Write the structure tokens for this entry.
Amino acid sequence: MQYSIPKGVFDILPDEPLEEDFWRQSDHWQYIEEVMRQTAGDYGFKEIRTPIFERTELFVRGVGETSDIVSKEMYTFEDKAGRSMTLRPEGTASVIRAFVENHLHQKGSLHKFFYIGPMFRYERPQSGRYRQHHQFGAEALGVCSPEQDVELIDMVCEIYHRLGIQELTVHLNSVGDEASRTRYKEALQAYLKPHFEKLSDDSKERFSKNVLRILDSKSPQDQALLTSVPSILDHLSPEAKDHFKKVCSLLEKAKIPYLINPKLVRGLDYYNGTVFEITSGQLGAQNSVGGGGRYDGLVEAVGGPSIPGIGFATGMERILQTMTKQGVAFPPAPHPLIFFIPLGEAASAFCFELLCSLRHKKIAADMDLSGKKVQHGLQLANQYKADYCAIIGDQELATGHVQLKHMASREVETIALSEITTILRSKRHA
Ligand code: HAM
């Protein structure tokens, strides 16, 4: 019996799969993760790792009952003791739970975390939308200044910049404080009420449960009704308006182009104030590469003190797909500097000892362990993309010299076996 992978998930593989699946190559993942870790470090964020599953209640309370994520998309199961558990659909709620539970708030007034890992959402699979996807996320807790908002937006843009991604658009909005939102919800309901019958079924349901989410609707019939919808920015309190203005002005100073999008509300219920999303023209319908916003009430909602927070998460699959579509160059995959092809038992024993010694000196080396013919070894050297290969038999052992072949240029040089470590070291740094 052969088993196939479940719908909506994928394998990340060491070698180039088909061209359209280039983004699934594991060394590309390692590369972008490295750039993200480095950037996060430069901005003063430290890694936090939380479990992949949590009590269901955390997400219901944290992400919000009316969000699509909680109401439709969670992977929820009962454990053997009958407790309801859920595979994390996003990272923020878990980070806040860990922050509160480990009393981290007692250790300072500003806390900056980042995380990388899989998230699980039972969505209809399509290009760019998976049931297990991966996020890099960052959360800053403790400061509610506009500078803090811009630090996060700048950091995610810097990650994209360091990765060489172009043509992204930063969408910006403010969903205000609670009083602003309440006023706006009333204005939105008043505007939509005469058109209620023309709304999509989903939006009819959202009308009383969470009217803001109608702004997010992809349905053309809803979109047609939303063309002259009142703007939330006209309903902000003076403080929220002032905060938003400062964020805009700081973004301009930081030379980060942005687009004000008053319909941007984001799909998670914890947001207040600044929200943002970064889109790529290359991704089709699922065009959001990253998004985030401020959530000043979440720490308290999860049982902690009143501490403001802001964060974002960016989808690793969507980053890699955008990079592939834009033809961004990835660094070469790790490969052996030298590949040995031994001929006969004595040479095999010699090569194996040499191989271990080179590896212990941090020189990437490999050899054909199969005992098969030269042709097989050469195929392997090509497959592993070795820089050099050396065929070693009785003659090489007797003379103490070997031909080192540069695989790409096919140039050959004869070197003393006793010198091989020094020579390879110099080639590694060349
Ligand atoms: P989100 O917008 O739901 O935000 O997800 C962040 C990013 O994850 C999206 O922009 C997208 O790139 C990627 N993503 C989401 N769902 C999928 C999927 N099914 N398949 C592939 N990629 C996907 C959050 O999760 C918030 N926790 C972000 C945040 C952090 N807000 C504040 N702090």
Notes: The mean pLDDT is 95. Residues 47 and 114 are 5 Å apart (CA to CA). The radius of gyration is 28 Å. The pocket of histidyl-adenosine monophosphate is lined by residues 90-92, 121, 123, 128-130, 133, 135, 137, 139, 267-268, 288-293, 311-315, 317-318 (CB under 6 Å).
